[in-house]
Specification:
Helix content: 10-25%
Order of helices and strands: HHEEEEEEEHEHEEEEHEEEH
Shape: elongated
Largest sheet: 9 strands, mixed
Structural class: alpha+beta
Distance between the termini: 20 Å
Strand content: 25-35%
Radius of gyration: 20 Å
Length: 237
């Protein structure tokens, strides 16, 4: 396989970061600086990134689902020393997150040691569904009707797969949106465009993985059924 794919599969870096690392001459194969597209044999060739040997042997990858709390960064390290999602899970070599939740957004966050799968699941062409529930104030019924027709944001049209508004009382609504695009801050920007004020935002589903009753800040392994469905998404997308 190509050296970039071997690095990403090992979970050392994302696929995009692997491309960049090879282009910058930071990757070597058997002591020789690698080239873009170079073929390697994982487990047989010695591959290093920034001088560190990377174990590229194909093994069973780890998959974790975390209930990300609010006020936690989806990043490995934060310059402002804020807590990150990696503070909440076991220290597993090569672990990367699948997509990103912003600082105040809660809910389902997948993490895996399979960098290639992480890239694949978040690529727009796969159209993996994500469901969010926003606690909002405003005319959610009219907003839901408008959203179903599609809403033009500055980076393109958003047409949710499904939109449901549930009354919570006190002029507050649970605004449930299922999307596939995965644009930055997409649901918050969608709500803003619809005149809704977001008090809280929770991702309740990513693909086949649902939040369920997993407590905030806790993590669990994927079930066999969830892993099988994830693998099917990767293979058939």
């Amino acid at each position: 396989m190509r050296v970039q794919r071997a690095l990403a599969r090992a979970g050392a870096v994302s696929r995009r970061e692997a491309d960049k690392a090879v282009a910058e001459g930071r990757v070597s194969v058997n002591g020789v600086v690698a080239t873009i597209g170079q073929q390697v044999h994982p487990g047989r060739d010695t591959i290093t990134l920034d001088g560190q040997a990377i174990d590229t042997r194909v093994t069973a990858h780890r998959w974790i689902v975390l209930h990300k709390p609010a006020a936690v960064m989806t990043t490995r390290k934060d310059p402002q020393q804020r807590p990150t999602v990696f503070d909440l899970v076991d220290d597993v070599p090569g672990l990367v997150y699948v997509g990103r939740l912003d600082f105040m957004t809660e809910g389902v966050l997948l993490l895996t040691t399979d960098g290639t799968a992480a890239h694949t699941l978040t690529h727009p062409s796969r159209e993996v569904e994500r469901t969010y529930v926003a606690t909002v104030q405003g005319d959610a019924v009219t907003a839901a009707r408008r959203a179903r027709r599609g809403v033009e944001l500055e980076d393109g049209l958003v047409v949710p797969r499904e939109v449901i508004a549930h009354p919570l009382g006190g002029r507050r609504w649970a605004f449930e949106v299922t999307i596939t695009e995965g644009k930055t801050h997409e649901v918050r920007r969608l709500c803003d465009a619809l005149g809704l004020e977001v008090e809280r935002l929770v991702r309740t589903r990513f693909g086949p993985v649902r939040l369920g009753d997993l407590p905030s800040g806790e993590a669990r392994a994927l079930t066999k059924s969830e892993r099988d469905m994830i693998e099917a998404l990767i293979a058939n997308g």
